[in-house]
Amino acid sequence: MPELPEVEVVRRGLHEHVLGATIESVQVLHPRAVRRHEPGPRDLALQLTGQTVAAVQRRGKYLWLVLEPADVALVVHLGMSGQMLVQPPSVPDEKHLRIRAVLDNGADLRFVDQRTFGGWALAPLVEIDGDLLPVPVSHIARDPMDPRFDADAVVNILRGKHTEIKRALLDQTVVSGVGNIYADESLWRAELHGNRITDTLSRPKLRAVLAAAREVMGEALAQGGTSFDALYVNVNGESGYFDRSLDVYGQENRPCSRCGAAIRREKFMNRSSYSCPRCQPRPRVRRA
DNA sequence: TATATCTCCTGCGGGC
DNA sequence: TGCCCGCAGGAGATAT
Length: 288
Known about the structure:
Number of helices: 6
Largest sheet: 5 strands, antiparallel
Strand order of the largest sheet: 2-3-4-8-9
Shape: globular
CATH superfamily of the largest domain: MutM-like, N-terminal
Number of strands: 11
Helix content: 10-25%
Structural class: alpha+beta
Radius of gyration: 20 Å
Number of domains: 2
Distance between the termini: 30 Å
């Protein structure tokens, strides 16, 4: 599932392969892939045609292409299964090809998305806290890999909330880029159960979980991201290797690499959470 | 206002 | 073999 490291791998690939390219034509093959572009598929195709990719940027799990001369952003979210592929036109269409942009450098930029949670949208850029961001990204907090990420400020936000720490880690307006996999890995490294309540946790403990998030996502990025199946790939269609380094996510009943206890799986927010019952004890009082 | 839950979507795998 | 159901989960919408 694409979280920050996987999206950053894609961003780097796009920077290498599409920066400076001009879009010659666009085909939207599935309207749901552009549902966040309110004027509709035809407008998106029309506005993209003739635009040149001036930059490829990312915040959290969002990435965007800055387009000139219109000076707008093509905002891309991969959702759960989205892929941005740079392919020669001779490569047959992928089964779940949703959008194709033909570039003047002889390549296709393809958006492939099995579960259609992702999509493309055009948006103006606005200045937020010294950064130029597309409007749909303006509410997204800085991610832990951002050079201007302020861990102390995030600790203060967490201390001011009364919610479970895992829920807060997944809230992209608090800290971005963290999804279910890296939330579990970060909490395991910080030896915290995801149901612990934020305003009961010490500042050092909150700093530790943020540091763990930065650390684990940095390691994943160095290995090209995490992949469990063919759903996450880089722009060349290759998978990362970090799934081989996960300590808890997907490790149910396997021994904890720190203490040997069997990793447990629990339901949380309608999804699976993995943790070590010994290193990460449940809070004594659980909320209803 | 803050927090919690629901909903969208498709393909795979297990059970019958 | 084929059908049904649960599961995977990001993020906006809706409910509390």
